[in-house]
Amino acid sequence: MVDDRKLAVLRAIVEDYVSTNEPVGSKALTERHNLGVSPATIRNDMAVLEEQGYIAQPHTSAGRVPTDKGYRLFVDRLSQVKPLSAAERRAIESFLAGAVDIDDVVTRTVRLLAQLTRQVAVVQYPTMSNSTVRHVELVPLSERRLMFVLITNTGRVEQRVVELADLVDENRVAHLRAVLNASLDGCGLTSVPDKVADLPGRLPPEDRPLATAILSVLLESLVERRDEKIVFAGAANLAGADFTVGLREVLEALEEQVVLMRLLGETSDRSAVTVRIGSENPYTGLKGTSIVAAGYGSGDKQLARLGVLGPTRMDYPVTMGAVRAVARYVSQILAAS
Amino acid sequence: MVDDRKLAVLRAIVEDYVSTNEPVGSKALTERHNLGVSPATIRNDMAVLEEQGYIAQPHTSAGRVPTDKGYRLFVDRLSQVKPLSAAERRAIESFLAGAVDIDDVVTRTVRLLAQLTRQVAVVQYPTMSNSTVRHVELVPLSERRLMFVLITNTGRVEQRVVELADLVDENRVAHLRAVLNASLDGCGLTSVPDKVADLPGRLPPEDRPLATAILSVLLESLVERRDEKIVFAGAANLAGADFTVGLREVLEALEEQVVLMRLLGETSDRSAVTVRIGSENPYTGLKGTSIVAAGYGSGDKQLARLGVLGPTRMDYPVTMGAVRAVARYVSQILAAS
DNA sequence: CTTGGCACTCGGGAACACAGAGTGCCAAGC
DNA sequence: GCTTGGCACTCTGTGTTCCCGAGTGCCAAG
Fold it and tell me: How much is the pTM?
């Protein structure tokens, strides 16, 4: 009984604070939510909640504000993800369906998410680690230059130019292409290095220089994994929100691939929406912000993550609903293509 | 004589205001620049300059601030582009040299420019309009799916998946690939539609369905020209600068491809640095900002543009120097690859 | 355990005064 | 005719003071 009401109070505080952006006091609470008790009672509860670290007051004699710990409790136990409206679902679907290639899918997704949540959206490109080789192509460009193209099952294309010591011999190239495709087709990207390690040895000696040149470029392109690239959109939404911490830090973090990666990155259960609140996140520059993220991917494998970043004071149920929905739709799109 | 000194005064005002960010008064001017005349004289000159619209005072009795017209005069007649230091040049060169493909070139360029100028950098992807076909590739993906890849002389790669009504026939695909390459190789992208218009008619009837399916995708990819894509970096640099206009507008504009395109886009002489100051630019949301841009491209053709966007109150000589230098280096890199 | 009453605290806004920077103008000097 | 020093005037920005109101904590009564 007692505890129940305290939780109700906490929930009310979070909801009011999120919607008004002002510290909420005991009187306002009893007026806006019918809790059936008087302000004085609320005050007692609030005193306890404060002692337990769920709420805080900015100054003596001002309303209360949820702490990170308070938001955490709210997210974990006091709220449920709010599904999108039918109209929103249709909009998502039709917007994403128009995508023409993987770049386009990512670009559209990030914009969509930003617009939907009115916050900064972050989308990680589908990781290669989990994908497999669909095709390898070798294209002669000029006498001593070859373009090497790797296509994965997610539709991602990596291309590199290979500089050769000798003139290109069409037949050798064709042969090597066949060999490469035969040994790599369907193979996971992570196991490619193993597969090709002894390949030059199995070829006739005159093919080896060509093969080693190509393989070194191939391996390099895998190592770089630049495709763990992250894009963001909706920075304009930061302008309205007043961050406790300067928004310079936030913008800086957004342009640091590495930081973003770590924010979204540490994966969890497939398809579950994870929330990281304020000081819970690993980067000190983002103390005042929360990250709501989810994994997406085609089939049963999680390929990458996406999410949004906003002030700690955000509408978690709605945001989580949007993130979850978009993650699902993107997964569908990817699986279909 | 008279006019000369007025110009010197204007230059001094611009320089001081840019460096201090405070309206500059007559007394401060005589102290910091040895103009050889007294504050009272300066005041007379300033009154004239104000009447002519080159400077303005924010409030009665405060220093003067350059107007857009004043900056314009400064840029056109009173300043010269400041070359970069040798160290900066080396840094640019080595940073760009590490680029591995066209995406990488663009990404590195935009970051470099942002860091160099401490402003928002904007880079347009090399336009297809000016580029030529280097190679067309057709890759069977599955029974009824084909990947179509177009490689241009700038190293840009467009890929699309083609859905087919019939099963893929390897021989037909090979034949069509040969035909396509024969007729398109080296052909400008803008003339591709003409070249392929009658192509199905010249093929044996059994090849036509395949050919038309592929061609429709090819044409579509050309029409979309999404590659007139624009990326930006350095948004964090906006946080420090205090814009007269809200920075929300600026961030919004940055995410609108179309707006950015128009800002950089209207081309001018190759390799000249163009400056658009405050209200001169076509987009009302960006009244308080200036754009310094230049074209870049390999060889003698201008492929695209790059530049930076910052507050009207910027150090034009330095910024112009940086933009010019980066444009040149990128052109070199592109020409070499 | 809840509730009304009450004294206390403190932030934020309004009113006000003041110093300082800067201007415009005028009359004198070169 | 341009330049210069002097002088009165006009503002903005800042610091001070004061007061109101929202909100709290505590206490004693129900």
Answer: 0.83
- Give the number of beta-carbon pairs within 8 Å between A and B: 83
CB B290 within 8 A of CB B310: yes
Distance between CA atoms of residues B20 and B15, nearest Å? 9
Query: Which residue, among B315, B331, B65, has the nearest Cα to B292 in the 3D structure?
Result: B315
- Short-list B52, B50, B51, CA closest to B64: B50
Report the candidate in A234, A254, A100 with the shortest Cα–Cα distance to residue B256.
A234
What's the angle, vertex CA B223, arms to CA B334 and CA B158, rounded to 5?
45
Write out pLDDT tens, residues B113-137.
999 999 999 999 887 667 788 888 8
User: Where residue B204 falls among pLDDT bands split at 50, 70, 90?
Assistant: confident
Cα(A330)–Cα(A304) distance, rounded to whole angstroms? 11
Contact yes or no for B252 and A236 at CB 8 A: yes
Tell me the per-residue pLDDT of A188-241, one tens digit each, with 9 for 90 and over: 877 788 888 888 888 888 888 888 888 888 888 776 655 578 999 999 998 876
If pLDDT is split at 50, 70 and 90, which confidence band does A1 have? very low
Give the C-alpha distances (Å, rounded to integers) separating B154 from A283, B65, B90, B129, B158.
Answer: 39, 45, 24, 11, 12
Alpha-carbon torsion (A328, A336, A227, A255), positive or negative: negative
Q: By three-state DSSP, how is residue A134 classified? A: strand
Q: Can you count the helices (H) and strands (E) in chain A? A: 14, 10
- Using an 8 Å Cβ cutoff, are A154 and A102 in contact? yes
Mutate to test the interface with B, among A120, A139, A146, A221 (most CBs of B within 10 A): A139
Please count the residues of chain A.
Answer: 337
Interchain proximity A161–B155, CB inside 8 Å: yes
CA distance to partner chain B, nearest, from residue A139 (Å): 8
* Mean per-residue pLDDT of chain B: 86
> Terminus-to-terminus CA distance in chain A, angstroms?
53
Task: Specify the length of chain B in residues.
Answer: 337
The DSSP bridge partners found for residue A5 are none
Name residues whose C-beta falls within 8 Å of residue A244's C-beta, 6 or more positions apart in sequence: A287, A288, A311, A312
Q: Locate A316 and state its tokens.
A: 């978690």
What integer best gives the mean pLDDT of chain A? 86
